[in-house]
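This entry is listed as follows:

___
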Amino acid sequence: MRRRGIVLTELHITEFALIEELRIELGPGFTVITGETGAGKSIVIDALSAAVGDRAGADTVRTGAEQAVVEATFDASAAPKALAAAAEAGVEADADGTLILTRVISTAGRHRCRVNGRSVPLSVLREIGDRLVDIHGQHEHQALIRDENHLQFLDGYAGPDALSVREEYARTFEELRAAQAARDRLAAAARDRLREVDLLRFQAEEIRSAALTPGEEEELLATRERLSNLERLREGGLEAHGLLAGVTEEGLGAVDAAREALRRLQDLAALDRGLGELAASLETAAYQLEDAAGRLSDYLEGVEGEPDALDEIEQRLALIGRLRRKYGDSPADVIGFGEEAAARLAQLERADERLGELAEEIARLEAEAGGQATRLSGLRREAAARLGEALTAGLGDVGMEHGKLEVELTQTAEAQGLPDGTGGRWLADARGIDTGRFRFSANPGEPLKPLAAIASGGELSRVMLLLKSVCSRGHEIPTVVFDEVDAGIGGRATHAVGNKLAELSRRTQVLCVTHLPQIARLAGRHFHVSKGTRGGRTRVALEPLDRDRRVAELARMLGAGEGDRAALQHAAELLEGGR
């Protein structure tokens, strides 16, 4: 059964850089990785970085392979923020809190990311990974040189209250900037808006006054076709009516002829009943002819009254054609354009009202952000004093007994910015109204100066280690990885740094790549990285060391040759002292 609090439990790497395949099982406490310079120790850390979402290009794929795969298994039972981030992404952890992060990198530069087998975007993998692993690379201590990073360290130390206020402030600040941008866009476009209003008003009125209806053009075209042939219709209709109801040169019209034929058949039916059915059919036909003659007469009366309507139809069709050329392919399209123009016109005519609303919203957000920034600044000031004292007290633990560290917070008054609650206004950005800077002195009597001005690489590494150790107290912190945190240090400082790493490992899992035996001796687990050739290919191997092999590795790190009995004795004593 795994102990609660173990975070990284296993790392499986295939075809990554010089690694063909490695499977590393890890446990709680302090673990070190050692090996000759250039053996590939940092490749293991690079692979872990890739697994948790850091940058990894196609050049990380081992030569000759199509893809690299890195899989990191975590016990996240003691990392609720990581579990929450996974749940938000739709990923369920196992019942025991296990999260498996997988990164596949192809030679084409494409990435596939999975969490517990579920595909996720790289951004989600990185978000979850950030809550599980804190990787301090070989050059990360350079972040301490840049003042803009110092507030991040301070806020992490200040704790959940400060982080919560900072998140609230950041959200409000973004809302404020969005409202200000909307106001500025409206104000800057005032002249263009007036021109657009005039155009839209004309377009909307032109279409509205035309009162088009869908399908109207087709009806008008049909009517025009009829009226254009009005004379033919009238003459043909009269001839047809005469044939039905009049008297022609040939004799009776069709209606009268049918009636006469019907009369004669009815007389004959009295003599022959067989003609009765035929007489009935003829009677029906006579009625239909009579009805057709009446309807044709009504049609001719209408034809006589419509010739003047042709001009009106031509004018209407010309109007529709003109509107179609300007606004759409059909009357329906023209109507739609008019509706959109009217809606846009209403929106633009409301711009002044919207400007007033934005002014009220900006004032509200300024007041809200100002209050949040002021509260955050107060929490930072309180934390800055405590952090400075804690860091100064801890400098002796990393071999700088006479050093001093403080956190300097300043606020810059400006004519524009956020209200500070006292009538003044402060310059503000997404981080708040504060600027923060670490100031350091390594020796008594020396003034405090910015870290970038006076700290060496070794001092920066130790300050970073001290920061991570101090900031971990009372806060959830993931697995901490140090890649050569011992860079630039020697002598007594090596023992101090080793002791600080061991102390930190009692609160969280620590994984460290080191060249120093004084640090390696303190680890609970020790892995050795080596590089060799097999089948004409360079391969990196990693293996856990037992007690005897640890002694031999410590002797090598001390600079002894193979078989140096005195060095082996010294290494054994060093290892025993570390325990």
